[in-house]
Amino acid sequence: MIADDVFARAEWWLHNDPDPVTRQELTKLLDWARQGSPAALADLRDRFSGRLQFGTAGLRGALGAGPNRMNRVSVAHTAAGLAAYLNATPGPPSVVIGFDGRTNSHAFAIDTAEIMAAAGITTYLFARLGPTPLLAFAVRELDATAGVMVTASHNPAGDNGVKIYLGGQHKGAQIVAPVDQEISAHIGAAAALPYAVIPLSSDFELVPAWVSRKYIAATSSLVTRSPVAMRVVHTAMHGVGWKTVEEVVSAAGFSSVIPVPEQQHPDPRFPSVRFPNPEEPGALDLAYALATERSAELIIANDPDADRLAVAVPDDEGWRRLTGNEVGLLLGWDAAERTRARGETGTLACSVVSSPALGQVAADYGLRFVETLTGFKHIARVPDLIFGFEEALGYLVDPAKVSDKDGISAAVAVLDLASRLKREGRSLDDRLLEAAHRFGAHASEQVSIRTARVSDITETMARLRRRPPAVFAGADVVAVDDFLHDVREFAPTDVLRFRLADGSRIIVRPSGTEPKLKAYIDTHSVIGRPEERIRMARARARDLADGVQRELRGASAAGGGLDD
């Protein structure tokens, strides 16, 4: 009976799918399932047991046929639901749509534009693929009610997704609750519609060319002083960043930025990397090789939709990628200095899982400091923001122009800082030593444990709440903050924060995008010379990471299922 129901839903989908690729895929899967293949039947059940859930991160998942996959039907239902939401809001609605170079991104963007236009919404579509920050910028520049970006950011090659932004009082930031639930309800209503009955119209406009030109001009103007000559290697990670990066750094006066040729142009297969994420081991190997060959002084790397930035510097062993917390400290400190030089004030912000070093900078400069829940949908909404970041390589250096993380403007800010330091005969590492002297040395580590089942994460978090560890790596736990119940400044969320007697901090939470449990370790040292402080802080962070790994595995022992 269950199988018959799955077959009926699959047949309905097959007759309503406008995409010949996914129709053929589903036809083969149905044939295999009817021939008795257990794997095919399990695949069908997975695809048709529910639908991708729309939330504050929008919609994201594996490409394929069925409501629990990303495809033209799922995107059409999402677009129809968003159109219904926008038409229910006051004032004449408008939307701007962008897309990256992933499989089907252009098709999804066209479908979204045609559905929006048919719903009577003033619709702008970018003429060519581009980075996510450009879409966020366009929402504000065109005074649009909403923005849609078709991207799966740094997810694996087989994924795609849709991000939603809101204009007006939201200033082009990503959606937050309760808007996500309201849009989701409209999408749920639209999901009952066959694709063929959803109205389509080609009555949409292309985004004016001046929008991109204005973004390039605004981003290149972040440079505070004429650059000195520097050899810099850039990788776009097979994404859409290079064209815009090239125009921006050229306009800013950086003439020696060398792209990694194998990763320079968009390629939805991401053939040279296991995962198209600059945080992943091996992702920067081609950049390291080219930088060594060309005697480069710096590496900058964007993820595929260019909203994140990684930075690597030369060291005794070749190249070292700076952590997101180190780059956040450097850029936040720079923002604080520039704000003081202008005689102004403002707020520095980061997510709760990011290094508290930014708070030290804010205190030193008499600025306000705010911690938010993870995600730039929260960081971008902090009042009077002058800089915000999170440890996962996301930085907001120009909040007056873009209300989201922006890996291109962050790249310009890093190049500008590196150029000024080189003029003084110093480097980014020298600046980090100076930070260790002034603010103390901060070090961070992460522990990620993949799960076989989502329930394993839930059970482990419940055990940590019932029996919190008393000691981590020799340091007593002096306080436990439960963000579900005890931390009133945030909406309840599944996060635990352990404060240790030696001043260290450990935060444990489920991943928001992957089936894993994540722990964030932060330490701080003020003993000895700056070099000694950094060594001690890093060594303590590594010790704590080992201890945290043991504790999490111990907490999960009763239920099992946690793997490296």
The oligomerization state is: single chain
For this structure, what is the CATH homologous superfamily of the largest domain?
Answer: Alpha-D-Glucose-1,6-Bisphosphate, subunit A, domain 3
| Percent strand | 15-25%
The CATH class designation of the largest domain is Alpha Beta
Helix content: 40-55%
- The figure for the number of domains is 3
Q: Ranges with pLDDT <50 over ≥5 residues?
A: 558-564
**Shape, principal axes of CA atoms:** globular
Q: Return the average pLDDT rounded to an integer.
A: 93
User: Largest sheet, described in full?
Assistant: 7 strands, mixed
How much is the radius of gyration in Å?
A: 24 Å
- The count of helical stretches stands at 17
> How many strands appear in the DSSP assignment?
23
Distance N to C terminus: 38 Å
Q: Give the CATH architecture of the largest domain.
A: 3-Layer(aba) Sandwich
Reported by name, the CATH topology of the largest domain is: Alpha-D-Glucose-1,6-Bisphosphate, Chain A, domain 3
Structural class from helices and strands?
Answer: alpha/beta
List keywords for this structure.
alpha/beta, 40% helix, Alpha-D-Glucose-1,6-Bisphosphate, Chain A, domain 3, TATA-Binding Protein, seven-stranded mixed beta sheet, 564 residues, 3 domains, seven-stranded antiparallel beta sheet, 23 strands
Description of the structure:
With 564 residues, the chain is α/β, with parallel strands linked by helices. It folds into 3 domains: 50-207, Alpha-D-Glucose-1,6-Bisphosphate, subunit A, domain 3 (Alpha-D-Glucose-1,6-Bisphosphate, Chain A, domain 3, 3-Layer(aba) Sandwich), CATH 3.40.120.10; 230-439, Alpha-D-Glucose-1,6-Bisphosphate, Chain A, domain 3, CATH 3.40.120; 441-563, TATA-Binding Protein (2-Layer Sandwich). Helix content is 40%, strand content 21%. It contains 17 helices and 23 strands. The strands form 4 sheets. Strands 1, 2, 3, 4, 5, 6 and 7 form a 7-stranded mixed sheet that branches. It has a 7-stranded antiparallel sheet with strand order 18-19-20-21-22-17-23. A 5-stranded mixed sheet has the order 9-8-10-11-12, sandwiched between helices. Helix 2 (20-34) crosses helix 3, helix 4 runs parallel beside helix 5 (105-118) and helix 11 (324-341) packs parallel to helix 12. The radius of gyration is 24 Å and the shape is globular. The two termini are 38 Å apart.
